What we know:
Layout: E1 9-12, H1 30-43, E2 47-50, E3 52-53, E4 59-60, H2 63-76, E5 81-84, H3 94-98, E6 107-111, E7 115-117, E8 120-122, H4 126-138, E9 142-147, H5 150-161, E10 170-176, H6 186-193, E11 200-206, H7 210-221, E12 224-227, E13 234-236, E14 239-240, H8 244-257, H9 265-272
Parallel strand pairs: 1-2, 1-12, 2-5, 5-6, 6-9, 9-10, 10-11, 11-12
Antiparallel strand pairs: 3-4, 7-8, 13-14
Helix pairs in contact: 1-2, 1-8
Bound molecules: (5S)-5-amino-3-OXO-hexanoic acid and zinc ion.
Amino acid sequence: MSDFRKLIITAAICGAEVMKENDPYLPTTPEELSAEAKRCFDAGARIVHLHVLDEAGNPTQEASVFKKTVSMIREKAPELIVQVSTGGATWMKAEERLQSLESDPDMATLSTGTSNFGSDVFMNTKDMILKFAEKICKKGIMPEFECFEAGHVSFANWLIEKGYVKRKHYHYDFVIGVPGAMEASLESLCLMKNMIPSCASWCVAGIGRHELNMAAIAVAAGGHVRVGMEDNIYLSKGVLAKSNAELVERVVDIAKNLNREIATPQEVKELFDL
Length: 274
Ligand code: KMH
Ligand code: ZN
């Protein structure tokens, strides 16, 4: 595992599964998403994980919406690392999902396996993963391995071993607690983090009520943290976060209490070779 000591927080500010009807504070337009990204950056986030929505508030992977949102984020928070989703929503086909790459992001997610996803299936066959990896790497974008199951970590390792993804540094995100997929527990997290190669760092995104515990464990254990309304909309039971920045601030507080410094944008860029 990488010996980089400082903490990297990713803000997943909206997602394909949460709608304005569930949460009036959810940012949905390019204007709202870019203002929210800036608030999260000011609070301590160094990466924004980005989904976008169409005018009706439904998830879309439309290149034009990604381009507009990414360019507005770059205007408002030029130092923030922009990571677009290639996962999209469970019902989207590969070509549709890949459109986000046209927005020239710093990073993009690369899901490394299929998993149950609530009542749906999040489909990532071997052929799809190889195609996504090729497109991401050809554009010089850094992939973040999205692992919803332990086997997805094995597949990401295999991509590295076989040279499908070649970088100085790799970053794995363990998305745990999705209903039907790997549970969010200390045991799951330890299993997954112990599988990654030495030239890699790891981050955890605990879903729903697991977000806070997983974040605290990761801060204490030398990992990195993803929080945000894509994964969890509550500050505590029944209390909605009014902004993604509140969720970021809470992790910053945990880090302060555990004497873990927040990485500067430049330090993250150097580590990731961006
Ligand atoms: N919405 C999920 C089906 C990603 O962003 O790359 C997939 C997802 C992963 O959110
Ligand atoms: Zn996502």
